[in-house]
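Colleagues,

For the teaching module next term, I've prepared a clean inverse folding example: a structure given as tokens, and then the sequence designed for it. I'd like students to try predicting residues themselves before seeing the answer, so please don't circulate the second half yet.
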């Protein structure tokens, strides 16, 4: 699934639309990129696929996708 469709689906969930404010979108991406990097630095390589750290990375991705839509 491409990002445009994901954002459309998420926008539909909150009766909103994709955020078109370029400055705000860039700030949002930087924020979530930093959050992701903080988690990545905790990865040791010994984690199992079901480890909480992988779930945390997935949640950050989902949070970013939701943050890119506005009501």
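(Answer key — instructors only)
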């Amino acid at each position: 699934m491409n990002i445009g469709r994901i954002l459309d689906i998420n926008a539909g969930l909150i009766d909103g639309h994709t955020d078109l404010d370029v400055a705000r979108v860039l700030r949002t991406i930087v924020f979530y990129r930093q959050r992701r990097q903080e988690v990545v630095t905790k990865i040791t390589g010994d984690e199992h696929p079901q480890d909480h750290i992988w779930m945390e990375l997935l949640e950050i991705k989902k949070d970013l996708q939701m943050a890119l839509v506005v009501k």
